[in-house]
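Exercise 3.2. Students should predict the tertiary structure of the chain below and write it as structure tokens, then compare their answer with the key that follows.

Predict this chain's 3D structure.
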Amino acid sequence: MVYEQEEETRETPVEEDADHPAGENRVVEELQQALAAEKERAEANMAGWQRAAADMANYRKRTDQERSELIGSANADLIRRLLPVVDDMGRALQTIPNEIESQPWVQGVKLIERKFLAILQQEGVTQYDALGQEFDPTYHDAVTVEPTDPANDGKVIGEIQKGYRLRDRVLRPALVRVGKAS
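Answer key:
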């Protein structure tokens, strides 16, 4: 029975296990720490994801705006190059003699001009009148300054070339004659 005595005399250290209250507390504490660490990591991941999503949304908005501006700029450039054709067509139609104005081909050319102007209007192009307005360098390019009565001082007294806007910005300023009181 020496064997039995050795077992009794051998002291086994008390190991904490899950069945022991102290062991349960330690395991619960470790799990709570692990949970808190994972929550922090999840929150950091969520914040990173939200930043990335916001960056992506901003990128999309910026590229859409740049694309829109590029298209608008290309349209503006094309329209600006077509305006002299509009001016020439208008001048040509003004010089048609009255005796041939009823000819079908003349009516056809007038119809073409109206269609062309309608397309420009659909694209946001509008013509603006400068005659009688105060001179504004934003909308007018002064070609000459001419003596006039005091009532027309600083006003546009003649329009050499029409001005055009594309929506809210000047596409081509009007070429004008400005009055100066003598």
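Discussion points: The mean pLDDT is 88. Residues 144 and 159 are 11 Å apart (CA to CA).
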